[in-house]
Amino acid sequence: MVRRVTIKKKQWFTDDIFGLEIYLPDIDPQPGQFFQVRVSTTYDPFLNRPISVVSYKGGTLLMIIRVLGRGTKMLSQKEVGEDLQVLGPFGKALRVKKKKSLLIAGGIGVAPLLFLAQKMHGKRIEFDFVYGAKREKDLIKKSHILQIAKHAIFVTEQGRSKMTVLGALDMLDVESYDIAYACGPKTMLIELQKLNLPIPVYAFCEDFLGCGCGLCLGCAIMYKGEYKRICEDGPVFELEYIEFNV
Ligand SMILES: Cc1cc2nc3c(=O)[nH]c(=O)nc-3n(C[C@H](O)[C@H](O)[C@H](O)COP(=O)(O)OP(=O)(O)OC[C@H]3O[C@@H](n4cnc5c(N)ncnc54)[C@H](O)[C@@H]3O)c2cc1C
Ligand code: FES
Hints:
By secondary structure, the protein is an alpha+beta fold. It folds into two domains: 2-90, Translation factors (Elongation Factor Tu (Ef-tu), domain 3); 101-243, Rossmann fold, CATH 3.40.50. It contains six helices and 16 strands. It has helices spanning 70-76, 110-122, 142-148, 165-168, 186-195, 230-233; strands at 2-12, 17-23, 34-38, 49-52, 55-57, 60-66, 83-90, 101-106, 127-133, 151-156, 179-183, 201-204, 220-223, 226-229, 236-238, 242-243. It is globular, with a radius of gyration of 17 Å. It binds flavin-adenine dinucleotide (FAD) and FE2/S2 (inorganic) cluster.
């Protein structure tokens, strides 16, 4: 269903990461789910852009977006009071397991993990948060993460720590966790898969989508030997079984 909403609040976190708050009552979005956002009132660009839920409280939904190309640039030019069309929520709701968890975020991949973290916090599930970005200023919502995670590690590729988020895993006893959730660039997920962690890792796949609602098959990935649609069957899949090279 297409919903026309008004932008209630806009916030720039960095020079290319911004947040939009909209009021969207009577929905019950779950971790893993996302909205298809129309960036223009014309057919150009034609495709909607998938954006995750970062938080949802009292009907107010927050999205945090990194400007990557034309669509996200156009979204970044929208201001408070302007209309926005959104469709969704799409994607399979992730069933949050009551297990000691490790959240691994790379760059803007932090967005859906913030929502997962919020839900875990609400259910008193213990979790640690490892979050890496290029620059210190790209690490958004740090104080919020510190408040709700049992332990948090922040690293940057440039600056003091000079470490990737996967490098930071060496500082942890990964076997002490029951489960991990990861979101970040595809290259990060591929490298994470190669690490063969001794616990199940659930990956939030944020590849390029077409229709976003299961019809075009433009988002197919090979998973457990079968094609699956990121938008409809995912976007969360167990990392071990994703065949990235297909
Ligand atoms: C389920 C899901 C949830 C997402 N949640 C968020 C979110 O919460 N916040 C956020 O900032 N982004 C999120 N993304 C990514 C976001 O949808 C893309 O960055 C956006 O669609 C790019 O649109 P654009 O018009 O700015 O870029 P385009 O002009 O379409 O593309 C610019 C360049 O980036 C490449 N590209 C486009 N999309 C992607 C992608 N998804 N991954 C890698 N390369 C890409 C293109 O091939 C092109 O080279 C999510 C994606 C998915 C599938
Ligand atoms: S994007 Fe069309 S089926 Fe997934």
